[in-house]
Write a structure and sequence with these properties.
With 226 residues, the chain is α+β, with helices and mostly antiparallel strands. It has helices spanning 2-11, 48-61, 210-216, 221-224, and strands at residues 28-30, 66-69, 85-86, 90-95, 98-101, 107-109, 114-122, 129-138, 141-148, 163-164, 169-172, 185-191, 204-206. A hairpin with a 3-residue loop joins strand 3 and strand 4 (90-95). The radius of gyration is 16 Å and the shape is globular.
Length: 226
């Protein structure tokens, strides 16, 4: 863990673009989708159109094109989705990645070089939809990054082990029907031990499992410096 943090701290001293680089970084604005945001009482954010309406209001207010944030946010976003109310481990509503909310079709770029570990269309409602996972081994530091809610075309011409260079276009943001009931966005997550998962990994956890996932899924902003 310490070696990963040391690597991330030295990787870049400035923000790392993960979306289309024609979008200037001053067009990014922070977004709060947590249960503590009283503005959300006026929106049913489980509905992708209502969620998009709120995001649009934040973008307009801040003259922005991309809204980002969400690591370890406790959210109501998953209240209407099966598989998030576990009987054993409790309700899963704590977000483990960093989201970038932007228009469907927006390019997604690799923030760091790696190889395709796996990819999959996770089609169940509330899941990721098309998903790509990269494996990274840099200066002896091994970790994974996950990119969820992509377009179907993003999975074309992929194979395990394919080299991906920093800045390469990985794919594009999917529409709500493809990303299985969310407003268009990228879910970006870092993972240390991926176990036997292929093309998928939990992106939301319960308070019961939070301690484990905090250690296994570091803050993506350590890499991106947004």
């Amino acid at each position: 863990m310490d070696s990963l943090y040391n690597f991330l701290n030295n990787f870049s001293q400035k923000p790392v673009a993960i979306l289309d680089d024609v979008i200037a970084l001053d067009k990014y604005t922070e977004l709060d989708l947590s249960i503590n945001n009283i503005e959300l009482s006026n929106y049913d954010i489980t509905d992708p159109e209502a969620c998009q309406a709120y995001i649009d209001s934040v973008l307009h207010r801040n003259d922005a094109l991309v809204a980002y944030g969400g690591y370890l946010e406790q959210r109501n976003l998953y209240n209407n989705k099966k598989g998030f109310s576990g009987l054993v481990d409790g309700k899963r509503n704590i977000h483990l990645g960093m989201d970038f909310w932007a228009k469907a079709g927006t390019k997604v770029r690799a923030p760091i070089s790696g190889r395709i570990h796996s990819f999959k269309n996770n089609r169940s409602k509330g899941n990721y939809g098309p998903t790509i996972i990269l494996s990274h081994n840099v200066e002896g530091v091994h970790f994974y990054t996950l990119y969820g809610h992509l377009s179907l075309e993003s999975l074309n011409n992929l194979y395990e082990g394919k080299n991906i260079k920093e800045g390469d276009i990985l794919g594009f943001l999917g529409t709500s029907d493809i990303n299985v009931n969310y407003a268009p966005h990228l879910h970006f997550q870092m993972i240390l031990n991926i176990g036997d998962y292929k093309g998928d990994y939990p992106g939301v956890c319960s308070s019961t499992n939070l301690e484990y996932y905090i250690k296994n899924c570091p803050d993506p902003n350590l890499l991106l410096h947004m």
